[in-house]
Design goal:
The chain is about 40% helix and about 15% strand. The chain is an alpha/beta fold.
Length: about 450
Protein backbone atom coordinates (compact mmCIF):
# COMPACT_ATOMS: atom_id res chain seq x y z
CA UNK A 1 0.00 0.00 0.00
CA UNK A 2 1.55 3.27 -1.16
CA UNK A 3 0.79 6.27 1.04
CA UNK A 4 0.15 9.69 -0.45
CA UNK A 5 3.21 11.86 -0.98
CA UNK A 6 3.64 14.82 1.32
CA UNK A 7 3.05 18.08 -0.53
CA UNK A 8 5.83 20.46 0.44
CA UNK A 9 5.11 23.40 -1.84
CA UNK A 10 2.87 24.42 -4.73
CA UNK A 11 3.16 27.75 -6.51
CA UNK A 12 1.26 28.78 -9.63
CA UNK A 13 2.33 31.19 -12.36
CA UNK A 14 0.96 32.32 -15.68
CA UNK A 15 3.09 31.84 -18.77
CA UNK A 16 2.70 33.01 -22.38
CA UNK A 17 0.21 30.95 -24.31
CA UNK A 18 -2.52 31.19 -21.68
CA UNK A 19 -1.16 28.42 -19.52
CA UNK A 20 -1.33 28.17 -15.77
CA UNK A 21 1.85 26.41 -14.61
CA UNK A 22 2.11 25.10 -11.04
CA UNK A 23 5.46 24.07 -9.58
CA UNK A 24 5.09 21.19 -7.12
CA UNK A 25 7.50 19.78 -4.57
CA UNK A 26 6.68 16.47 -2.87
CA UNK A 27 8.36 14.29 -0.27
CA UNK A 28 8.45 10.50 -0.65
CA UNK A 29 10.42 7.62 0.89
CA UNK A 30 13.72 6.84 -0.79
CA UNK A 31 13.01 3.14 -0.23
CA UNK A 32 9.31 2.28 0.08
CA UNK A 33 10.16 -1.02 1.76
CA UNK A 34 12.28 0.75 4.37
CA UNK A 35 10.87 4.17 5.32
CA UNK A 36 13.68 4.68 7.82
CA UNK A 37 16.14 4.93 4.90
CA UNK A 38 15.25 8.61 4.43
CA UNK A 39 13.24 10.65 1.97
CA UNK A 40 13.58 12.23 -1.45
CA UNK A 41 12.21 15.54 -2.68
CA UNK A 42 10.39 15.23 -6.01
CA UNK A 43 9.61 18.06 -8.40
CA UNK A 44 6.94 18.36 -11.09
CA UNK A 45 5.26 21.05 -13.13
CA UNK A 46 1.59 20.90 -13.97
CA UNK A 47 -0.26 22.83 -16.66
CA UNK A 48 -3.82 23.66 -17.39
CA UNK A 49 -5.54 26.26 -19.49
CA UNK A 50 -5.95 29.70 -17.95
CA UNK A 51 -9.22 30.87 -19.49
CA UNK A 52 -9.42 33.79 -17.03
CA UNK A 53 -5.75 34.29 -16.13
CA UNK A 54 -6.12 37.51 -14.15
CA UNK A 55 -8.90 36.32 -11.84
CA UNK A 56 -7.73 33.92 -9.14
CA UNK A 57 -11.16 34.06 -7.54
CA UNK A 58 -12.83 32.62 -10.61
CA UNK A 59 -15.53 30.25 -9.31
CA UNK A 60 -14.86 27.92 -12.25
CA UNK A 61 -11.18 27.62 -11.30
CA UNK A 62 -11.79 24.93 -8.68
CA UNK A 63 -13.70 22.89 -11.25
CA UNK A 64 -10.84 23.22 -13.70
CA UNK A 65 -8.36 22.27 -10.97
CA UNK A 66 -10.15 18.92 -10.73
CA UNK A 67 -9.81 18.07 -14.38
CA UNK A 68 -8.54 14.53 -14.97
CA UNK A 69 -4.77 14.22 -14.61
CA UNK A 70 -2.43 13.24 -17.45
CA UNK A 71 1.11 12.49 -16.26
CA UNK A 72 4.09 12.40 -18.60
CA UNK A 73 7.04 10.08 -17.96
CA UNK A 74 10.22 11.15 -19.72
CA UNK A 75 12.59 8.80 -21.53
CA UNK A 76 16.02 7.98 -20.21
CA UNK A 77 16.69 6.73 -17.65
CA UNK A 78 18.05 9.78 -15.92
CA UNK A 79 16.57 12.71 -17.84
CA UNK A 80 14.41 15.49 -16.46
CA UNK A 81 11.24 16.86 -18.07
CA UNK A 82 10.91 20.03 -20.04
CA UNK A 83 8.47 22.56 -18.64
CA UNK A 84 5.02 21.98 -20.21
CA UNK A 85 5.07 25.17 -22.26
CA UNK A 86 8.16 23.83 -24.06
CA UNK A 87 6.53 20.58 -25.20
CA UNK A 88 4.97 20.62 -28.66
CA UNK A 89 2.21 18.25 -27.55
CA UNK A 90 1.07 20.09 -24.40
CA UNK A 91 -1.83 21.93 -26.02
CA UNK A 92 -2.97 18.71 -27.67
CA UNK A 93 -3.34 17.13 -24.23
CA UNK A 94 -4.99 20.18 -22.69
CA UNK A 95 -7.41 20.51 -25.60
CA UNK A 96 -8.60 16.97 -24.85
CA UNK A 97 -9.75 18.05 -21.40
CA UNK A 98 -6.84 17.02 -19.17
CA UNK A 99 -4.50 18.86 -16.90
CA UNK A 100 -0.90 17.82 -17.47
CA UNK A 101 1.79 16.83 -14.99
CA UNK A 102 5.44 16.66 -16.14
CA UNK A 103 7.39 14.79 -13.47
CA UNK A 104 11.13 14.96 -12.97
CA UNK A 105 11.69 11.31 -12.10
CA UNK A 106 13.66 10.71 -8.92
CA UNK A 107 17.31 11.59 -9.36
CA UNK A 108 16.68 13.95 -12.31
CA UNK A 109 16.05 17.66 -12.73
CA UNK A 110 15.03 19.09 -9.36
CA UNK A 111 13.99 15.71 -7.91
CA UNK A 112 16.92 15.12 -5.53
CA UNK A 113 19.26 15.01 -8.54
CA UNK A 114 21.96 12.35 -8.70
CA UNK A 115 25.30 13.81 -9.76
CA UNK A 116 28.84 12.82 -8.90
CA UNK A 117 28.91 15.47 -6.16
CA UNK A 118 25.51 14.67 -4.62
CA UNK A 119 26.22 10.95 -4.74
CA UNK A 120 29.49 11.52 -2.93
CA UNK A 121 27.56 12.98 0.01
CA UNK A 122 25.93 9.60 0.64
CA UNK A 123 29.01 7.81 1.94
CA UNK A 124 31.51 5.24 0.70
CA UNK A 125 31.31 3.32 -2.56
CA UNK A 126 29.05 0.45 -1.35
CA UNK A 127 26.67 2.99 0.24
CA UNK A 128 26.56 4.95 -3.00
CA UNK A 129 25.88 1.81 -5.01
CA UNK A 130 23.07 0.83 -2.66
CA UNK A 131 21.58 4.31 -3.05
CA UNK A 132 21.68 4.03 -6.85
CA UNK A 133 19.55 0.88 -6.71
CA UNK A 134 16.58 3.07 -5.75
CA UNK A 135 16.27 4.83 -9.11
CA UNK A 136 14.77 2.22 -11.43
CA UNK A 137 11.24 1.95 -12.79
CA UNK A 138 10.00 -0.05 -9.78
CA UNK A 139 10.64 2.95 -7.52
CA UNK A 140 9.52 5.55 -10.07
CA UNK A 141 6.03 4.08 -10.37
CA UNK A 142 5.67 4.05 -6.59
CA UNK A 143 6.47 7.75 -6.66
CA UNK A 144 3.76 8.20 -9.26
CA UNK A 145 1.21 6.43 -7.11
CA UNK A 146 2.18 8.50 -4.07
CA UNK A 147 1.85 11.73 -6.06
CA UNK A 148 -1.43 10.66 -7.66
CA UNK A 149 -2.93 10.08 -4.25
CA UNK A 150 -1.73 13.45 -3.04
CA UNK A 151 -3.06 15.37 -6.03
CA UNK A 152 -6.46 13.62 -6.14
CA UNK A 153 -7.14 13.44 -2.41
CA UNK A 154 -10.09 15.85 -2.78
CA UNK A 155 -11.45 14.24 -5.94
CA UNK A 156 -14.51 12.01 -5.99
CA UNK A 157 -13.37 8.38 -5.81
CA UNK A 158 -14.43 7.67 -9.40
CA UNK A 159 -12.14 10.42 -10.70
CA UNK A 160 -8.95 9.59 -8.83
CA UNK A 161 -7.38 7.44 -11.54
CA UNK A 162 -5.08 9.19 -13.99
CA UNK A 163 -3.69 8.78 -17.48
CA UNK A 164 -0.01 8.03 -18.11
CA UNK A 165 2.01 8.85 -21.20
CA UNK A 166 5.45 7.24 -21.41
CA UNK A 167 8.14 8.04 -23.97
CA UNK A 168 10.92 5.44 -24.41
CA UNK A 169 12.05 4.52 -20.86
CA UNK A 170 8.91 6.27 -19.70
CA UNK A 171 7.01 3.52 -21.53
CA UNK A 172 9.04 0.93 -19.63
CA UNK A 173 7.88 2.65 -16.43
CA UNK A 174 4.28 2.70 -17.65
CA UNK A 175 4.44 -1.07 -18.23
CA UNK A 176 5.78 -1.56 -14.71
CA UNK A 177 2.88 0.60 -13.53
CA UNK A 178 0.41 -1.64 -15.37
CA UNK A 179 2.04 -4.66 -13.75
CA UNK A 180 1.82 -3.63 -10.11
CA UNK A 181 -0.51 -0.64 -9.64
CA UNK A 182 -3.16 -0.82 -12.39
CA UNK A 183 -5.79 0.41 -9.94
CA UNK A 184 -4.35 3.91 -10.28
CA UNK A 185 -4.56 4.01 -14.08
CA UNK A 186 -7.37 5.17 -16.33
CA UNK A 187 -5.47 4.68 -19.60
CA UNK A 188 -1.88 4.47 -20.85
CA UNK A 189 -0.16 5.90 -23.93
CA UNK A 190 3.28 4.59 -24.89
CA UNK A 191 5.58 6.07 -27.52
CA UNK A 192 8.54 3.91 -28.54
CA UNK A 193 8.63 2.31 -25.12
CA UNK A 194 7.14 -1.17 -25.02
CA UNK A 195 9.91 -2.91 -23.06
CA UNK A 196 11.36 -6.33 -23.86
CA UNK A 197 10.19 -9.05 -21.50
CA UNK A 198 13.68 -10.26 -20.63
CA UNK A 199 15.62 -10.83 -17.41
CA UNK A 200 18.82 -9.17 -18.61
CA UNK A 201 20.19 -7.00 -21.44
CA UNK A 202 22.22 -9.52 -23.47
CA UNK A 203 19.51 -10.41 -25.98
CA UNK A 204 18.52 -6.75 -26.17
CA UNK A 205 21.99 -5.78 -27.36
CA UNK A 206 22.24 -8.79 -29.67
CA UNK A 207 19.36 -7.28 -31.60
CA UNK A 208 20.19 -3.61 -31.26
CA UNK A 209 23.74 -3.96 -32.54
CA UNK A 210 22.28 -5.34 -35.77
CA UNK A 211 20.01 -2.30 -36.05
CA UNK A 212 22.95 0.03 -35.41
CA UNK A 213 24.87 -1.69 -38.23
CA UNK A 214 21.95 -0.94 -40.56
CA UNK A 215 22.00 2.71 -39.54
CA UNK A 216 25.74 2.90 -40.18
CA UNK A 217 25.17 1.50 -43.64
CA UNK A 218 22.49 4.13 -44.26
CA UNK A 219 24.90 6.83 -43.04
CA UNK A 220 27.72 5.85 -45.37
CA UNK A 221 25.31 5.37 -48.25
CA UNK A 222 24.18 8.97 -47.84
CA UNK A 223 27.65 10.36 -47.10
CA UNK A 224 30.19 8.03 -48.76
CA UNK A 225 32.87 10.72 -48.49
CA UNK A 226 32.72 10.31 -44.70
CA UNK A 227 34.30 6.84 -44.90
CA UNK A 228 37.77 8.36 -45.34
CA UNK A 229 37.03 11.31 -43.07
CA UNK A 230 36.06 9.10 -40.15
CA UNK A 231 39.13 6.91 -40.67
CA UNK A 232 41.44 9.92 -40.54
CA UNK A 233 39.79 11.24 -37.37
CA UNK A 234 40.00 7.85 -35.65
CA UNK A 235 43.61 7.43 -36.77
CA UNK A 236 44.47 10.75 -35.13
CA UNK A 237 42.71 9.81 -31.90
CA UNK A 238 44.39 6.42 -31.78
CA UNK A 239 47.79 7.97 -32.50
CA UNK A 240 47.59 10.21 -29.47
CA UNK A 241 46.08 7.58 -27.17
CA UNK A 242 42.96 7.49 -25.06
CA UNK A 243 43.77 10.37 -22.74
CA UNK A 244 45.77 12.89 -24.81
CA UNK A 245 42.93 14.78 -26.56
CA UNK A 246 41.57 16.69 -23.60
CA UNK A 247 38.10 18.20 -23.42
CA UNK A 248 36.94 21.28 -21.54
CA UNK A 249 35.11 19.04 -19.06
CA UNK A 250 38.46 17.44 -18.13
CA UNK A 251 37.41 14.27 -19.89
CA UNK A 252 39.20 12.87 -22.93
CA UNK A 253 38.19 12.12 -26.51
CA UNK A 254 39.29 8.59 -27.38
CA UNK A 255 38.48 6.77 -30.61
CA UNK A 256 35.83 4.72 -28.80
CA UNK A 257 34.23 7.84 -27.37
CA UNK A 258 34.13 9.32 -30.87
CA UNK A 259 32.35 6.16 -32.06
CA UNK A 260 29.58 6.88 -29.57
CA UNK A 261 28.33 9.68 -31.82
CA UNK A 262 26.28 6.93 -33.46
CA UNK A 263 23.86 7.41 -30.58
CA UNK A 264 22.39 10.15 -32.80
CA UNK A 265 21.51 7.73 -35.61
CA UNK A 266 18.26 6.67 -33.96
CA UNK A 267 16.63 10.10 -34.17
CA UNK A 268 15.13 12.06 -37.04
CA UNK A 269 18.01 13.95 -38.65
CA UNK A 270 20.56 11.99 -36.63
CA UNK A 271 22.58 10.86 -39.65
CA UNK A 272 22.91 14.48 -40.73
CA UNK A 273 23.94 15.52 -37.22
CA UNK A 274 26.81 13.04 -37.22
CA UNK A 275 27.83 14.13 -40.70
CA UNK A 276 28.04 17.76 -39.58
CA UNK A 277 30.38 16.79 -36.72
CA UNK A 278 32.51 14.60 -38.96
CA UNK A 279 32.72 17.33 -41.60
CA UNK A 280 33.79 19.88 -39.03
CA UNK A 281 36.42 17.60 -37.53
CA UNK A 282 37.72 16.66 -40.98
CA UNK A 283 37.99 20.31 -41.93
CA UNK A 284 40.03 20.96 -38.80
CA UNK A 285 42.45 18.18 -39.64
CA UNK A 286 42.94 19.31 -43.24
CA UNK A 287 43.62 22.91 -42.18
CA UNK A 288 45.41 22.60 -38.85
CA UNK A 289 46.27 18.98 -38.20
CA UNK A 290 44.32 18.93 -34.92
CA UNK A 291 40.76 19.32 -33.64
CA UNK A 292 39.89 22.84 -32.58
CA UNK A 293 38.17 23.74 -29.34
CA UNK A 294 34.88 24.52 -31.10
CA UNK A 295 34.83 21.10 -32.74
CA UNK A 296 35.72 19.31 -29.52
CA UNK A 297 33.02 21.26 -27.69
CA UNK A 298 30.40 20.27 -30.30
CA UNK A 299 31.36 16.60 -30.00
CA UNK A 300 31.30 16.81 -26.23
CA UNK A 301 27.89 18.47 -26.10
CA UNK A 302 26.35 15.82 -28.33
CA UNK A 303 27.04 13.14 -25.69
CA UNK A 304 25.53 14.14 -22.35
CA UNK A 305 26.76 11.27 -20.18
CA UNK A 306 28.45 13.62 -17.70
CA UNK A 307 25.25 15.60 -17.18
CA UNK A 308 23.04 12.54 -16.69
CA UNK A 309 25.05 9.91 -14.84
CA UNK A 310 21.97 7.79 -14.08
CA UNK A 311 21.62 7.30 -17.83
CA UNK A 312 25.03 5.64 -17.92
CA UNK A 313 25.09 3.80 -14.61
CA UNK A 314 21.55 2.39 -14.74
CA UNK A 315 21.09 1.92 -18.46
CA UNK A 316 21.79 -1.81 -18.44
CA UNK A 317 20.10 -2.55 -15.09
CA UNK A 318 16.76 -1.24 -16.43
CA UNK A 319 16.52 -4.65 -18.13
CA UNK A 320 17.60 -6.73 -15.13
CA UNK A 321 15.31 -8.99 -13.10
CA UNK A 322 17.33 -11.29 -10.85
CA UNK A 323 20.46 -11.04 -13.00
CA UNK A 324 23.55 -8.84 -13.20
CA UNK A 325 24.23 -6.81 -16.33
CA UNK A 326 28.02 -7.35 -16.15
CA UNK A 327 28.65 -4.74 -18.84
CA UNK A 328 26.48 -6.54 -21.37
CA UNK A 329 27.12 -4.17 -24.29
CA UNK A 330 30.89 -4.58 -23.89
CA UNK A 331 30.60 -8.36 -23.94
CA UNK A 332 28.19 -8.50 -26.88
CA UNK A 333 30.13 -6.08 -29.09
CA UNK A 334 32.93 -8.65 -29.32
CA UNK A 335 30.65 -10.64 -31.66
CA UNK A 336 30.42 -7.80 -34.16
CA UNK A 337 33.68 -7.05 -35.96
CA UNK A 338 32.02 -4.09 -37.69
CA UNK A 339 32.75 -1.99 -34.59
CA UNK A 340 36.34 -3.12 -34.04
CA UNK A 341 39.34 -0.77 -34.13
CA UNK A 342 41.55 -0.54 -36.09
CA UNK A 343 39.67 -1.65 -39.18
CA UNK A 344 40.28 -1.86 -42.93
CA UNK A 345 36.72 -1.12 -44.01
CA UNK A 346 34.39 1.68 -42.91
CA UNK A 347 34.53 2.43 -39.20
CA UNK A 348 31.12 1.94 -37.62
CA UNK A 349 29.70 4.08 -34.86
CA UNK A 350 28.05 2.48 -31.85
CA UNK A 351 24.57 3.29 -30.52
CA UNK A 352 22.79 3.53 -27.19
CA UNK A 353 25.20 1.27 -25.35
CA UNK A 354 27.27 1.82 -22.21
CA UNK A 355 30.84 0.60 -21.82
CA UNK A 356 33.31 0.38 -18.94
CA UNK A 357 35.83 2.61 -20.79
CA UNK A 358 33.40 5.48 -20.23
CA UNK A 359 34.26 5.43 -16.53
CA UNK A 360 37.69 6.75 -17.50
CA UNK A 361 36.85 8.88 -20.55
CA UNK A 362 34.09 10.99 -18.99
CA UNK A 363 35.14 13.24 -16.10
CA UNK A 364 31.93 12.91 -14.04
CA UNK A 365 31.63 9.17 -14.62
CA UNK A 366 35.24 8.83 -13.50
CA UNK A 367 34.14 10.08 -10.07
CA UNK A 368 31.52 7.33 -9.73
CA UNK A 369 33.58 4.50 -11.23
CA UNK A 370 33.62 2.29 -8.13
CA UNK A 371 29.84 2.38 -7.40
CA UNK A 372 29.13 1.97 -11.12
CA UNK A 373 31.23 -1.20 -11.19
CA UNK A 374 29.33 -2.48 -8.15
CA UNK A 375 26.02 -1.79 -9.88
CA UNK A 376 27.18 -3.70 -12.97
CA UNK A 377 27.93 -6.76 -10.85
CA UNK A 378 24.75 -6.62 -8.73
CA UNK A 379 22.34 -9.47 -9.46
CA UNK A 380 19.53 -9.28 -6.91
CA UNK A 381 17.31 -6.91 -8.89
CA UNK A 382 13.57 -7.23 -8.19
CA UNK A 383 10.97 -7.92 -10.87
CA UNK A 384 9.95 -5.06 -13.12
CA UNK A 385 6.93 -6.72 -14.74
CA UNK A 386 4.18 -9.17 -13.90
CA UNK A 387 3.27 -11.27 -16.91
CA UNK A 388 0.14 -12.71 -15.24
CA UNK A 389 -1.13 -9.21 -14.45
CA UNK A 390 -0.39 -7.92 -17.95
CA UNK A 391 -2.21 -10.93 -19.39
CA UNK A 392 -5.37 -9.96 -17.52
CA UNK A 393 -4.94 -6.22 -17.94
CA UNK A 394 -8.12 -4.12 -18.09
CA UNK A 395 -6.52 -0.67 -18.52
CA UNK A 396 -6.73 0.65 -22.10
CA UNK A 397 -3.22 0.83 -23.60
CA UNK A 398 -2.28 2.58 -26.84
CA UNK A 399 1.27 2.31 -28.17
CA UNK A 400 3.28 3.76 -31.03
CA UNK A 401 5.79 1.20 -32.31
CA UNK A 402 8.48 2.14 -34.82
CA UNK A 403 9.69 -0.58 -37.19
CA UNK A 404 13.08 1.10 -37.59
CA UNK A 405 13.58 1.99 -33.93
CA UNK A 406 17.32 1.83 -33.13
CA UNK A 407 16.81 1.95 -29.36
CA UNK A 408 13.84 -0.33 -28.67
CA UNK A 409 13.66 -3.47 -30.79
CA UNK A 410 10.52 -3.72 -32.92
CA UNK A 411 10.02 -7.48 -32.51
CA UNK A 412 10.43 -7.24 -28.73
CA UNK A 413 7.91 -4.39 -28.69
CA UNK A 414 5.32 -6.34 -30.65
CA UNK A 415 5.85 -9.39 -28.44
CA UNK A 416 5.18 -7.23 -25.37
CA UNK A 417 2.13 -5.67 -27.00
CA UNK A 418 0.77 -9.18 -27.42
CA UNK A 419 1.34 -9.90 -23.75
CA UNK A 420 -0.65 -6.84 -22.57
CA UNK A 421 -4.31 -7.71 -22.87
CA UNK A 422 -6.15 -5.10 -24.92
CA UNK A 423 -3.04 -3.22 -26.06
CA UNK A 424 -3.57 -1.45 -29.38
CA UNK A 425 -0.59 -0.50 -31.52
CA UNK A 426 0.08 2.17 -34.10
CA UNK A 427 2.89 0.66 -36.20
CA UNK A 428 4.88 2.76 -38.65
CA UNK A 429 8.06 2.62 -40.70
CA UNK A 430 7.88 6.35 -41.40
CA UNK A 431 9.09 7.53 -37.99
CA UNK A 432 12.01 7.03 -35.65
CA UNK A 433 12.30 6.79 -31.88
CA UNK A 434 11.99 10.53 -31.19
CA UNK A 435 8.76 10.96 -33.17
CA UNK A 436 6.94 12.39 -30.16
CA UNK A 437 9.28 15.37 -30.50
CA UNK A 438 10.16 15.42 -34.21
CA UNK A 439 6.89 14.19 -35.75
CA UNK A 440 4.54 15.07 -32.96
CA UNK A 441 1.41 15.82 -34.98
CA UNK A 442 1.64 12.63 -37.03
CA UNK A 443 2.39 10.26 -34.16
CA UNK A 444 -0.20 11.83 -31.86
CA UNK A 445 -2.83 11.53 -34.58
CA UNK A 446 -2.02 7.85 -35.08
CA UNK A 447 -2.04 6.91 -31.40
CA UNK A 448 -5.10 8.94 -30.45
CA UNK A 449 -6.98 7.41 -33.37
CA UNK A 450 -6.57 4.08 -31.56
CA UNK A 451 -8.08 5.58 -28.45
CA UNK A 452 -11.00 7.15 -30.31
CA UNK A 453 -11.68 3.98 -32.33
CA UNK A 454 -11.22 5.77 -35.63
CA UNK A 455 -9.18 2.84 -36.95
CA UNK A 456 -11.58 0.07 -35.91
Amino acid sequence: MIAAAKILEQRTHLVPGKLKITEHFFEVPRDYTKPSAGTLKLFARSARKAERPADNSDPEDKKRSQLPWFVYLQGGPGFECRSPQNNAWTNTILDKGYQLLCLDQRGTGLSTPVTASTLGLRGNDPVQANYLKSFRADSIVKDCEAIRKALTADYPAEKQKWTVMGQSFGGFCATTYLSFYPEGLKEVFIFGGLPPMVNGPDEVYERLYKKVIQRNEAYYQKYPEDVDRVKKIVTLLQKFGDSTVRLSSEGSLSARRFQQLGLQFGAHGGIDTVHELVLRASSDLSQFGHLTRGTLSSIEQSLSFDENILYSVLHEPIYCQGTASNWSAERIIQKYSEFSLPKDGPIYFTGEMMYPFMLNAYSELRKVKAPAELIASYADWPSLYSLPQLAQNTVPVYAAVYIDDMYVDFDFSMDTAGRIKGCKTFVTNAMYHDAVRSRVDDVMKGVWALRDDVMD
